[in-house]
Amino acid sequence: MRGVFARAATGALRRSLARLVPWVVLSLSLLTLALHAAPVRADDASLARPRARFAESADVPHVDAPYAPLVRQHYYAQLAKNPWRALGWEALLPGAGNLYVGLRVPAAMTLGLSALGAGLWVAGATMQRGAGGRAALLWTGVGTLAAARAYGLVSAPIGAALLNAAFRAQLGVSGVY
């Protein structure tokens, strides 16, 4: 008699978890997107005028030297990230394109949500047919994986382009990427 109650309790727990998982995934996804999309405040007045700060710097005595634009252009070429390369890395491995750009938090989000989606997908696919919540678990996994991959494939090249724009503004050069 005891085994019957244990199996019934386990089945009820599985059904309640299968109903809860989509809401938890949705809540965590919205929270990470809200945190990632938070505006960056530039309290430092020097960020508003990068060329003036660079030109007035005490440790760069010859900013107006004839070779200074070439040095800044070379420095930009060393720092710039190719958005197409970021997209390629992201297509190969979730989070790799964001790591190439240097964005660790979006890389961790992409990798973590992709792994979570794949795990939910596999868990839903391996449940017995007719089990309660199988379809919900399966499609929650597919949706989470698809959303994580789409986020990564969009954020990596955009992050590279924004980083390059910041480098161009900071160094006062025109760039290729």
Description:
This protein is mainly α. The chain contains eight helices and no strands. α5 runs antiparallel to α8 and α7 runs antiparallel to α8. The longest helix has 38 residues, at 134-171.
Largest sheet: number of strands, sense, barrel closure = none
Indicate the overall shape.
Answer: elongated
What proportion strand? under 5%
Helix content: over 70%
**Number of DSSP strand runs:** 0
Mean pLDDT across residues = 78
How far apart lie the N and C ends?
A: 70 Å
The number of helical elements comes to 8
What's the SSE pattern?
Answer: HHHHHHHH
Radius of gyration: 24 Å
Supply the helix-strand structural class. mainly alpha
- Uncertain segments: 44-50
Quick overview of this protein structure:
The protein has 177 residues and is mostly helical. The protein has helices at 2-36, 45-48, 50-55, 68-79, 83-92, 96-101, 104-126, 134-171.
Q: Tags for this entry?
A:
177 residues, mainly alpha, 8 helices, elongated
Detail the topology: elements first, then pairings.
Layout: H1 2-36, H2 45-48, H3 50-55, H4 68-79, H5 83-92, H6 96-101, H7 104-126, H8 134-171
